[in-house]
Design a protein that fits this description.
It is a single chain. This protein has 92 residues and is mainly α.
Length: 92
């Protein structure tokens, strides 16, 4: 680690005990290592949420650009007919 900044955090006694248990079991070398991993996971989840939100926006825009909405029963009837053709195979 090239540079670090020390900060102080407050956690519940239950979380502190779990951190100590993880360090005492040898799973982690220090409490700082536990917190760093937790922060990396938190940051990854935030980035994934943001990417999902952006993808939803792209899909929304694509849906709006695809034309006016069509009634569900009409669309499903068309899809069933197309799938039936695929199941029947090519005409001879």
């Amino acid at each position: 680690m090239s540079s670090v900044e020390k900060i102080s955090i407050a956690v519940t006694p239950e979380l502190a005990a779990r951190v100590r248990d993880a360090v005492n079991s040898g799973e982690y070398a220090s409490a700082s290592e536990v917190v760093r991993e937790a922060l990396r996971d938190w940051n990854r989840k935030r980035e994934e949420r943001q990417a999902a939100f952006e993808e939803l926006g792209r899909q929304w825009d694509a849906g709006k650009a695809s034309g006016p909405p069509q009634p569900g029963p009409t669309v499903f009837a068309r899809l069933r007919a197309e799938l039936k053709k695929v199941d029947e195979g090519p005409a001879r």
